[in-house]
Specification:
Number of strands of chain A: 13
Order of helices and strands of chain B: HHHHHHHHHHHHHHHHHHHHHHHHHHH
Distance between the termini of chain A: 26 Å
Shape of chain A: elongated
Number of strands of chain B: 0
Mean pLDDT of chain A: 78
Largest sheet of chain A: 6 strands, mixed
Strand content of chain A: 15-25%
Shape of chain B: globular
Helix content of chain B: over 70%
Strand content of chain B: under 5%
Largest sheet of chain B: none
Oligomer: heterodimer
Structural class of chain B: mainly alpha
Number of domains of chain B: 2
Radius of gyration of chain A: 23 Å
Chain lengths: 372, 579
Amino acid sequence: MTKAHPAIEVSGLHKSFGRTHALDGLDLDVRTGEVHGFLGPNGSGKSTTIRVLLGLLRADSGTARVLGRDPWADAVEAHRRIAYVPGDVTLWRNLSGGEVIDLYGRLRGGLDPRRRAELIERFELDPTKKGRTYSKGNRQKVALVAAFASDVDLLILDEPTSGLDPLMEEVFQRCVAEERDRGRTVLLSSHILSEVEQLCDRVSIIRKGRTVESGSLAELRHLTRTSVTAELSGPPSGLAELPGVHGLTVHDHRVRLQVDTDRLDGVLRALTASGVRSLTSTPPTLEELFLRHYSDPEQETTGPELKATGPERETTGPERKATDPARETSGPARETSGPATTGAAQETTGARPADSTPAPEAQAADSTEAAR
Amino acid sequence: MTGTAAGTGPAAGPGPDTGTGRETDAGPDTGTGPDTGAGPGGAPGASGRTAAAPRTGGRRHLAGTPALLRFALRRDRVLIPVWVAVNALMVLSMPGTLKSLYGTPAERASLLDQMAANTSLRALVGPVFGDSLGALTAWRVGVYAGALAAVTSLLVVVRHTRDEEESGRQELVSSAAVGRRAPLTAALLAAAVASAALALLVTAGLAGRGAAGAAAFGLGLAGVGLVFATAAAIAAQLTQSARAARGLTAAVLGAAFVLRAAGDAADDRSSVLTWLSPLGWLEYLRPFAAERWWVLLLFAGATAVQAAVAYRLAGRRDLGMGFLPTRPGPAEGRLGTAGALAWRLQRGALYGWSAAFLAAGIVFGRMTEGAAQAVGDNERTREIFQRMGGQSGLTDAFLAAMTGLLGLVAALYVVSSVLRLSGEESSGRAEPVLAGAVGRLRWAAGHLAVAFGGSALIMLLAGVGFAIGYGRQAGPVLGACLVQVTAVWVIGGIAVLLHGLLPRGAVAAWGVAGAALLIGWIGPALNAPRPVLDLSPFGHLPKLPGADVDWTTLGVLLGLAAVLVGAGLAALRRRDMAG
């Protein structure tokens, strides 16, 4: 692979199917060696983009380069260095999983037999079963083993963990981390935000076929609001008038609010003026970023509530893991189940001794660290 | 679309007994082993229970059938009307055509004499039992209308049984208040609706030629439809894939055709071989020629027995499973190229077709000798016989007719094989292959090599079969078979072009093959105008053996096939992959 090129370079991509504009000027930059999160709700154009990158669809306009090549004209050469995992793997009913893994591997740049054996073990896959007898998760594992064992430079994973149980999800995450350590590039399309937060160096968020945000998680967080909970020694004053403050609730001396991250300073000043007994400040989660970009204007009114409950999840690592299965398995229900799970998290947070709460900046750094 | 429809189907019509308590009550009863209920009305043997228990048990197994039937008919709102209408039109257009061809009694008498001498036509169409226009209609289109009714039934039944299970849609439907036997019952009823509609149309349309004959013919066609509906129901229990279920039932239909062809060629009154074939029963029902009503009992009996077998098999197996256990496969594979994959996916079907064509060649080959001798005794028949070229002319005509028949059937193979491309694409299985270092042309080439090479192979094997069965003229017969390949390839080329241009419209290739079949089988009898007959590439082939080989025509056909394939591949390279 030529290190000079970014792994994927897309700009101004347009693609329509009849009257539907699936891609409407999409941009995407994936640097060599990074794990890049590709986020968007259902139908936003993630799979269409990936299928353009694989030369399965021809873009109407715009440019796309994959590993320095034109994905349409130069598909075969590019594909030698690419492994692809679709979100819904269909297998041939009369071929065993092992046969399919080897076939996929050979159709690319080849397969490392040792790594193949190791991955089959780690994913607990029975390679002798025939296509039809695999469950959804196991079909997914077949494609994942083939991709991770292939000798390639770029992995394109399109919602690869759908149907995987939490244990396998963790195996998957370790595998992606290993791939990055080996210098491979990964494009990870997903709407499982915890997965993206844990794995990705940089993220592109798309909506209706257009890129709306792109950058590292830290950069993106900077654009959004930080949640602050504080217990004060006196009644708070002047908070409501401060610019950038949202969703302020005051209960006796307890204050909860969100603030645009670049206005944090002013809020802290106002709080310390009243005397701070305890303070928790958390950066926005990816989920909040996501909701902010995708909630429609009329939903915006209900937005703050969700946002307010979000941050605690971020601070309490173990709880988040525990709630993962629920989030995982019940796709659409995930958002609605959010408040309930955070309820439990809140309690744990509340029980913390006040003096152990780190300074806002330190904590923000902490959770960013944890997210990686 | 079907997904949401599948969801609303059962919900729309909750059966009378939706109580979960009774559902669990069924547990021991069905779990203990073979469910002895014979049919939808049959009372399953819940031994040792009160008399009422088995009755509710039977109904419970059928819960939701009306809703499923409505749902099936809704999904088939295009398929069934089209197949029934084409079939009925073919039948009902026949009296008028025959009237113009054989207007006078003398002409009809001469036709009957000819049929006594012309064994090849008898093998293709069947024996004539009367000289009325009704009898001639039943003779001329009976076998083909029956075959079409059989295909309609098998498509409908497999579509609503094994197809649904294979796709996983059945699981959702069966999780609702739907009885264990309801899906199979609904599928059979949907096929019965199609058969009944055909019977009604044919009976009403031909009533002017004699009410009894029209009713007998209509009922006979419906009978063939029901026999193959239940045969498909059995096949759908045995196999795990809808493709295999359709193939198995189609093989039974092919065997029924070959049996009656062999029987009719040897004997124009009553042959054991013909009696073995449901299509033969339709002939021996003798519509419009002193109907033998009792033959209808054969249809009824076969339908009842097959339905009982299907229900019994269905009661013994798990949802989505077949009867052959899936054996584990190798943990490591040797497949490494798209071509090897295509061969691996298609070889099973090709083996089946090869065996069938070899067997058909042998059967027809063995018939050839007898066909030339089974000439009636009367003087006029002998005259006709001489005019047709005597012994050698007759065997040549017979061989030409039979190789032509197999060529038309081989067109079905080439279409099914080429359409694997479309199946791989729409199922999403092509995507990971094409995401490997495999160009589209190479991916397509693997499947097309099997399709085009395979169609040449099966025709070659048919020729070998003829040579084995007949024992003479091996060279000319092989040549006659291979000549068919050029026309088969043109049909295959059209399929490639359709797939290249319109991935979703590729199934239209079946329509092309069907049209070629209809033109080849029915066209000449309809006295269709030359331009229509010329539409089919098979119409241009020299009638070998016996005629001169027209190399120019063959060259043109080969060139046309090459152009079609080339254009199809060029289009495939340019378009978006569906998925």
